[in-house]
Design brief:
A hairpin with a 4-residue loop joins strand 1 and strand 2. This protein has a 3-stranded antiparallel β-sheet with strand order 1-2-3. The chain is an alpha+beta fold. The chain has 4 helices and 3 strands; from the N terminus they run H-H-E-E-E-H-H. The chain has a domain of 81 residues. The chain is elongated and about 45 Å long.
């Protein structure tokens, strides 16, 4: 609740913010939910992203939306330790961009246009 006077230049009134509005807690998220929650923030016109649970951790899969690509998938596995980090959203973003760069380089080095396969 903010009942400060808008004209008063000092605005000396206290601003009250409920803790519940800032830190809403719900049921605990699984490791797969954590990755899928991050994936919802990213969209690309040429690639699609998905995640699935494996015995080693959560696997991130990047697929080309372009038909007839020689390397149809790029995979990365996140361990439970990676997912529990407080820095995971930033680490995830960097890894996703790094993986996309590696995948694009891999696509072009295996391209029929370059003669390499």
């Amino acid at each position: 609740m903010d009942d400060r006077h808008p004209v008063d230049p000092w605005n000396r009134c206290i601003v009250y913010m409920g803790r519940n509005s800032l830190f809403e807690e719900g049921p605990p998220m699984t490791t797969l939910d954590i990755v899928q929650n991050e994936l919802e923030k990213y969209e690309h016109p040429y690639f699609e992203f998905s995640a699935r649970d494996t015995s080693k951790g959560v696997e991130l899969c990047i697929r080309s939306r372009i038909p007839d690509v020689l390397s149809p998938e790029y995979r990365l596995v996140f361990s439970d330790r990676d997912l529990q980090s407080t820095q995971f959203p930033w680490t995830f973003q960097k890894l996703l961009y790094d993986c996309l760069t590696d995948y694009i380089v891999e696509l072009f080095t295996r391209s029929p246009m370059t003669g390499n396969q």
